[in-house]
Design a protein that fits this description.
By secondary structure, the protein is α+β, with helices and mostly antiparallel strands. 60% of the residues lie in helices and 13% in strands. It contains 13 helices and 14 strands. The strands form 4 sheets. The chain has a 5-stranded antiparallel sheet with strand order 2-1-7-6-5. Strands 9-11-12-14-13 form a 5-stranded mixed sheet. Strand 5 and strand 6 form a beta hairpin. Helix 1 packs parallel to helix 9.
Length: 610
């Protein structure tokens, strides 16, 4: 019987113990997973319904307030859509009420919603004037607060229920853990004792080999091993003796210096806390440090039996274009932001790695490879997310007081409380413009928050390209006229159909046209055009403004970035949100510009299949 067979039989009791522990663990995890899924299934529907009701209610109330402020109040055309959205969420809540007190809270929402609709009906009948404002402040706003209060109560009920169920599941998990721990310890102890008793006799010769190898590793190349028998241990002893002889010869040669240099370079990259990978020009891994061991695996190809490859296909696909870019441009690659971080599972949780690439050059400055450092930005990305959440919360809280402030300014400008002096009107008009600018910034921040949390949600439909351009033209015609600009749109005659979310495309046009109007001097021209090419429809917004320096043309699409010295300044979010919206359609958004020669922003949308 060979040594391998003996060792395998010696480990059999321990393997059986591990199998028993594994089966117990699988059963425990399955039970806990079922409980967790039940918690999410029972309460998520109610939380989602509450979110939809709050969202529809805010949009409905904003539409009513905007219509009231417009100076010629008429019921907005989106009222029916927002009402149906709220009632759809209310029906979902009525169907999913399972917690104690949730059915009563839902009934209170129903009654408060009826009061709010009644207030809206009185507002519609009152039209424009003092009566409509009286209804708005003394009946519509209190009804709104009442509905929101009851919806928030539903959210509180479900959140409390989820917390309670989670605590119950945690308590059950603790019981399972105690049982599993007792069984595991018992099985492992028995298996370990039996295995140790068998293997201790088999491994005594290995102790002699270990001591000899330790001496050789310490530099004593005169050490030798003497073991009797004819099994694998004896053959291994002979190989160790031969190795010691050859190491003595090798140590005496000049090649040992090269080995020490290689070991020193490997130790240097091993000391780095982040994964480091060194690729050759063909994309094969030549070196890596200790932090990278979980990211690499042996190449299964028979043509390269000793080479390494990236273990995760997603990481490999992400690094491939980066390597091509560094090798082709022969310059380093630096990421532009946390959004380029790669999410990987390291077993102990998800980590986000931000890649940086530097070319490896020979003495003649030719590129021979690429060094990739994967910086761990998990905590930094979490802090960035917390910052975004805080900004979104503050922006959301601004909306209601900002709406009231805008309405008060509009009422004063309409001279409802009384006549205004010229200086008073001038100050109020400046305040109104500032309010509109703050409202735009708040909307941009909320859009940015939604994109960060949920991605860009699309409702695609086939729509003529000319119709999108005509709508954008109508929305900005007055702003261009007030600044003395020519606004032309030959693209509105384009009849090509695009498959897109019309609201998102309108947002893209709004950002591009607002920037073009803002940065074009009076007497200039803003032009919108469109045409189809290769299954895509290309839109362009051109202006005759001051232009954008080449070094800033890519940076302006990042969050909170603007061209230094450019006036006036916006929130720095519009182009970032616009690019995310276009990319969610599968298209791309870019700019072509020269300083002093205007700018041409372009984006593409997929052509609808007829």
């Amino acid at each position: 019987m060979t040594l391998r067979t003996k060792l395998i039989l010696a480990q059999l009791p321990l393997l059986l113990a591990v199998l028993a522990v594994g089966l117990l663990g699988v059963g425990t995890i399955a039970n806990i997973s079922q409980r967790s899924q039940r918690i999410v299934k029972e309460n998520y529907t109610s939380l989602r319904a509450a979110y939809e009701m709050n969202s529809a209610l805010e949009r409905l109330h904003d539409a009513a307030a905007t219509a009231l402020l417009s100076g010629h109040y008429t019921p907005p055309e989106h009222f029916t859509e927002f009402k149906l959205a709220f009632e759809r969420g209310l029906r979902q809540q009525q169907e999913s009420s399972v917690e104690a007190g949730e059915a009563e809270a839902t009934s209170e929402v129903q009654m408060a919603w009826s009061d709010y609709l009644e207030a809206l009906r009185f507002l519609d009948q009152a039209g424009q004037g003092a009566l409509s404002r009286e209804i708005y402040f003394h009946r519509l706003l209190p009804s709104l607060s009442k509905v929101q209060k009851h919806v928030d109560h539903i959210v509180t009920i479900n959140q409390s229920a989820m917390i309670q169920k989670g605590e119950q599941a945690s308590a059950r998990a603790m019981d399972y853990r105690a049982t599993a721990l007792a069984v595991s310890l018992g099985a492992l102890l028995v298996g370990l004792l039996v295995s140790l008793a068998i293997t201790s006799r088999l491994l005594r010769p290995m102790a002699m080999l270990g001591r000899a190898v330790q001496r050789i590793g310490g530099g004593d190349f005169e050490a030798r091993v003497s073991v009797g028998g004819r099994d694998e241990v004896t053959r291994l002893a002979g190989e160790i003796n031969l190795m010691a002889h050859r190491l003595r010869q090798y140590h005496q040669s000049s090649l040992s210096e090269l080995l020490l240099a290689q070991q020193a370079s490997q130790a240097a990259i091993d000391s780095l806390p982040d994964p480091v990978l060194v690729f050759d020009l063909s994309g094969k891994i030549k070196h890596f440090n200790l932090e990278s061991r979980k990211l690499v695996a042996r190449d299964p190809s028979p043509l390269a039996p000793s080479s390494w490859r990236v273990r995760d296909p997603g990481l490999e696909a992400h690094l491939a274009p980066l390597l091509r870019q560094v090798i082709s441009s022969q310059g380093p690659y630096h990421p532009s932001g946390f959004e380029e971080a790669i999410k990987l599972d390291f077993g102990d949780g998800d980590r986000y790695l931000l890649p940086r690439a530097t070319p490896v050059r020979e003495s003649d400055n030719t590129v021979k490879g690429v060094t990739v450092v994967l910086q761990d930005v998990t905590r930094l990305r979490l802090f960035d997310q917390l910052k975004s959440d805080m900004v979104a919360t503050v922006a959301h809280e601004f909306r209601t007081p900002l709406t009231s402030l805008r309405m008060a300014i509009y009422l004063l400008l309409e001279q409802v409380p009384g006549p205004l002096a010229d200086k008073q009107r001038e100050l109020l008009e400046a305040a109104r413009n500032d309010c509109e600018r703050v409202q735009t910034m708040v909307d941009d921040l909320l859009d940015l928050s939604r994109i960060s949390d949920q991605g860009v949600q699309l409702r695609r439909q086939s729509v003529p390209a000319g119709e999108l351009i005509a709508y954008a033209l109508e929305q900005h015609r007055m702003a261009a006229h007030n600044k003395g600009l020519r606004l032309s749109a030959p693209g509105r005659d384009c009849q090509d159909m695009v498959l897109a979310d019309q609201d998102r495309v309108n947002l893209v046009f709004s950002n591009l046209l607002a920037n073009a109007i803002r940065h074009t001097p009076p007497g200039g021209e803003v032009r919108i055009s469109a045409w189809s090419e290769g299954g895509w429809v290309r839109f362009e917004v051109s202006d005759s403004g001051e232009g954008i320096p080449v070094e800033h043309q890519e940076a302006i699409f990042r969050k909170f970035h603007g061209v230094p010295g450019a006036k006036p300044k916006g929130s720095g979010l519009g182009l970032f949100i616009a690019r995310q919206a276009v990319r969610s359609h599968g298209g791309e958004l870019g700019v072509e510009s020269q300083p002093g020669q205007g700018s041409r922003f372009w984006f593409t949308l997929p052509q609808a299949q007829v």
